[in-house]
Protein: DNA (cytosine-5-)-methyltransferase
Amino acid sequence: MRGLVLDLFAGPGGWSVPLQRFGIRDVGLEWDEWACKTRAAAGLLTIRTDVAMYPAWIFAGRTRGFIASPPCQAWSMAGKRLGLVDQPLVHQAVADLAAGLDTRDKLLTACRDERSLLAAEPMRYLHALNTVGDPAWVAMEEVPDVLPLWRQYAAILRSWGFSVWTGILNSADYGVPQTRKRAILLASRVRTAEPPTPTHARAAEPESLFGPGRARWVSMAEALGWGATDRPVPTICAGGGPGGGPEPFPSGARKTLSDARARGTWTPLAGDVVLSSRREGAGWTARHGVRENRATDAPAPTFTAEAHRWSWSLRSNNQTNATVRAIDEPAGTLFFGHRANECTWIAEPPPNTAVGDAAPPPPPPIRITAAEAGILQTFPADYPWQGNKGQVFSQIGNAVPPRLAAHLLAPHLDHSFNPDDFALAA
Structure:
């Protein structure tokens, strides 16, 4: 019976969360110790293994669906991008594997980044599965630069009888509070492969003769439940993030942001969102700094003058070209795993503050918590992350957003997408 959904490079469960909501359990292949522990804590089936070493033939005749999100570090804008240099070798590996030839060892010796060839691993499994007519459908996801490779996969899959679609999707168009763009491949033996219909847009669309228009992109404030629209800003207990749980950063600086939210010193900008990523130069650190170890007994600043209420933004990392987004916008792409890739909340005076107007100093920048990052990636607020803060952040940054995955998977599973099943705020 072909009922198995196989999930290569499964990570902490970005694809598994929506599958669970649809009443389906996947079998994830994953090597990272802490991602496997997170999956175990979430009740997900996992084989801890090196995907490149595990035999593919054992899944033949059993597999209904096939999912793959190969590691993106070799290709990502956040890394050295040696995968682009190795791209001809990866294309060669895919062509050879599709023909039943395993030349990986030879090609690996020529690769600049040993992780590059992992993007060819899905073809090894697909070739083994195709010999018995598996799988019925395929869904794969990677960073945008991998799109040419997905097109090569698509040509091979079409020769095997699949309908295939490839392209770049923006996660924000599907209700993810993050403008994370990803190269997607969708294939099916039983239906026409096509991208899911977007549910959100940069600006809300009016109702028409064809039905309701798309909703406005989900902002960070809305996702986190921080004063979005007419809802009050929640008070966050000392030592915990939104919804409770341990504070990932042993610092009193978190209290500054908590107090600012609770006192209403953060205010959303009025009107429809106009997405405007601001790039700051090297002088940003000198102006702001990042205070992670503020004394726990230090008083949080108070802001009583209405003219000096601060607006919060999220800075995507501490590099010079970092994206800075206001909290009433979606976040930029969240990626972690390196000291330079640390997201911080920064406070700025509202745009209408008069020049020379006396104002207290802004609260210091505050590092995003793992709980906040997980919600912005659309994992459940109570997701049982395992490991220290660095290990958790790495899992979050490498995962596919579950809400995007739900949109990609639903048509293959003959399942209607219910937004209420994937609520963002705790």
